[in-house]
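Deviations from the work plan: none for this task. Representative record:
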Amino acid sequence: MTTDHRAAAPPTKLGGAAPPTASSPDPKEQRRARRRSRRYMRDTKWSPYAFIAPFFLFFGAFGLFPLIFTGWASLHRVTLQQPTTMEWAGLHNYTRLLSDEFFWNALRNTFTIGLIATVPQLLMALMLAHLLNYKLRNSMFFRVAMLTPYATSVAAATLVFAMLYGRDYGMINWALGLVGIDKIAWEAGTWTSQFAVSTIVIWRWTGYNTLIYLAAMQAVPNDLYESAALDGASRWQQFIHVTIPSLRPTILFTVVVSTIGATQLFGEPLLFGGTPSGGSQHQYQTLGLHLYEVGWSFYNLGRASAIAWAMFLILIIIGLLYWAVARWIGRSTGKGA
Amino acid sequence: MRRTTRTPHRHSRTSRAVAAGIAAALGTSLLAACGSDDNGGGDGGNGSGDVTISVGVFGQMDFTELYDEYMDENPHVKIEQNSIQENRDYYQQLITRLPTGSGLSDIQAIEVDNIYEMANDLGQYWVNLNDSEHADLDHFVEWKRDQATSQDGRTIGFGTDIGPMAICYRTDRFEEAGLPTDREEVGQLWADDWAQYIEVGERFMENTPSDIAYVDSAGGMFNAVLNSFSEQMYSADGEVIYQESEAVQNAWDLGVAVAEAEMSAGQDQFSEEWNRAFSNGDFATISCPAWMLAYIQDKAGQDGEGNWDVAAAPRPANWGGSFLAVPEASKNQDEAVKLANWLTAPEQQAKLFNTQGNFPSSATAQDSPDVQDTTHDYFRGAPIGQIFSDAAQGIPTIIVGPRNQTIRESLTDGLVMIEQQGESPDDAWDATVRRIENALAD
């Protein structure tokens, strides 16, 4: 409604947006009119700030301040027990990260789990969205069903999965036993545990991405499919040559969101093993978990802050990479068309 | 709308001003709300009025059965208990809340692994019980009281229980393997030392007809051996000595022996699978401190009744045990100290031993016939009073340091590497040392 304000109160002219008072010669009346006009001017000038103030206050308190404070803490020696006493350490916390095998291990795990979790997830989501895009009976039911895992709490889902993946009494090993495969120690192995954690992520987020893809697919104009059909394109060819290119921005969006989610992966690996160490060999300890362990089990808030900032920088680098890729794709398709 | 704004009327202006005001107020008041945390039930009670005392506990610890009696005797007091399952979570919450003084209960339980840190580094946040007229500390065993006392002589905690160790074993599994089942004879099997306990394990594994392990985990073995020594991770003058200490070397070697002899079920203690292994009876023995009896009874359930028994351990040792402390931030310090004092008084400790199996840290309670004559029906009427009293006699004064828990957990994780991930003992040891050094580094 901001346009209204601008039309209503040309701020420089005498009287401004106040009711017309031309016919009243009374100076008192004029003063009052001026005062009212000033009030309107002030209103139009400042009330928009008041309206957006809550956002900035919240952002300042819960976004910007923690970010800056974490950065400040990362330059100090700070312990969890005495968070108010800080001792200047310069870049010590960062330089020691470079040679910290546990940090690199966590980074590697984050990357591999992210890959195992995200790639199949988005591919499956694309397939499912494609299927749901056909005329189906009870399509509403399927769409809602898709979204139910997303509505489940991480804790509940993870605890159930941890039981399914149990070595001695888990249902998955029991099922594998039926077809003659030996017990797998899911939690103990590196790849098996990362796979297990990834399946929790896949299970929870596939439906969400499916719905996003579905929404984008329904916005693809029908003419494109018709003309493709006239040209003799099969269903599959239509999917490859019409649907996918039209979905490109959406796909990029889901990739970015999934990447951020994967980098911050925390609840699933924490509850899967029940400890912040992410397995006895840290075999599925992600960066988020590593941060938590350093800060809250080793009580080293300074180093934990440095890890937090390192994660932030990594995300920014990935963001820039995506941005470059998006531009490159945009340019190449522009040329192609 | 465009036209109406040209001829403004009072109403829209005031409503907009109100809206702007609300927006601003909403922002600031919500921010302000974040500053004032809840005080965890520490309200009420100045002087004569009613007082609500909150008690924060973790794990299996539970004083509920005692509260009614206390509230009957002291009608002005109401007691609330907040319980958190894992000590790790409980402790992290406690340690973050303590410096800010908000969100704390009036009485907080502290595990022995954490007591050094609480008494020394964070001692300022706890009420010094030596200065309190309501605290009677004379009846506790000396080493228990020492653990809760800082270098400069402040005592911050009442002892609740201690964890003298025995071996819990399944008579049916022993019978199948041709071993004796009577608890006296079983205790004799390994009366010399822990190595003998492992030899019995080898016999057991050879002769057991079923697919049963002898012991639950190498980590459990490690804890049992470790806790029979006085200096473990820290020396008496506070040095980190886990790499050289006799305790860790012995415990590690025996843990490795268990892992390599394939006599362990390879469980992580306190995991979901471990719990289920109890109910399925998948292992025959476990080193059990007194407080674990309730846990076993709970997890092994009705099917296990009459199968479990308790025998003496090779060496006296202590695993666990807790304290009750009162934060300085409590608004009802006096009432809280009174309650904590009462909860840990000899009579109450004896009662809890009878009902829950938590062995008293009070010397007076230990000597009382109530405790001495206690038997446990679930464990085939085992005279647990006698067994644990004997075990408690030889308990060394265990020296704890600030990072006990981190070091101990890393070491048991090292054994998991051998047991579950097939690492060689040397590699596992190196990895464990690197991990501990990384954790202790600043």
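Chain B is about 50% helix and 15% strand.
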